[in-house]
Fold this sequence. Notes:
The chain is of the alpha+beta class. Helix content is 18%, strand content 20%.
Amino acid sequence: xxxxxxxRIPEWQVTDEAVHAARRGxxxxxxxxxxxxxxxxxxxxxxxxxxxxxxxxxxRSGFRTSEALTRIEDVTSxxxxxxxxTAKNDPSQAPKTLKTSPWTINVTGECDKPGQIGLxxxxxxxxxxxxxxxxxxxxxxxxxxxxxxxxLASVLARFAPNSKAKYVAFTTLADPKQMPGIRYxxxxxxxxxxxxxxxxMNPLSFLATGLYGKPLPQQNGAPVRLVVxxxxxxxxxxxxxxxxxxxxxxxTAWHDLQPSEYGFFSNVNPNVDHPRWSQKxxxxxxxxxxxxxAERIPTRMFNGYADQVASMYAGMDLKKWY
Length: 322
Ligand SMILES: Nc1nc2c(c(=O)[nH]1)N[C@H]1C(S)=C(S)[C@@H](COP(=O)(O)O)O[C@H]1N2
Ligand SMILES: [Mo]
């Protein structure tokens, strides 16, 4: 779908779809000129993380919510997974081509026990749990999703990160044979994301392998994807094939495209607008109403997870480290 097509859409969709189109159309139209990074670039390091002061009870209170769940039909048909195309329903074709078994994750970098882990082994040797999290996309829509999976910290600990491991970098599979969207340069493939070590070890950080009690559908990032619910959705990288412990802040896919618009931290923050749209509200796709009738609600600081994560950012200027 072209930018023009995207704008020729029904009234009810125009705001979010226009934002979405603007987001991905930016490079093709204006973005060819280099944009200077304002912050979050790899050669500026943020202040060291303060010791977190979150109790186990506070952490656990973030693991579920009583808010209405997003219907599984919407969770699996309204997706961002540019490896399969940039339209919201393109990724629902992913089951036709993406082969998720066998699947191996390579773990490398600053750790004492680098190696490979097969997804079957990971599942066999871990206890899966359910997390019901809000997911807030930078485009201004949100969902409530019941995930199944494994706390990220427990997986990372197996590889014994060393004292030089300050960040964790994640990479998605980039196979043009399985992922038809790869032939378009919407992203500088492979899709890459990263977390600071303390963020990765936070109890909320989760590796999802299922949703609604079923194995993760391809369109949602099968067989294993990151979920970091206090950050904009693009941090929740799908179909992970590599995890690397690194000393310097790693480059990430959206930062690479538009450093002035997508920072490394990308914490949900209603007080820091995207340069081209407001982040004060979101369209909540949940409950019995489908995405066609989503309600507008105020966006909360850290997507409502301030009790669990705010202490990691004490003393940091979140306008600078967006
Ligand atoms: N590899 C990869 N991961 C990705 C994306 C992508 O295009 N490619 N899109 C991100 C964005 S922008 C969002 S909002 C979430 C959407 O997750 P969902 O489709 O499961 O709701 O996935 C994120 N992870
Ligand atoms: Mo997103």
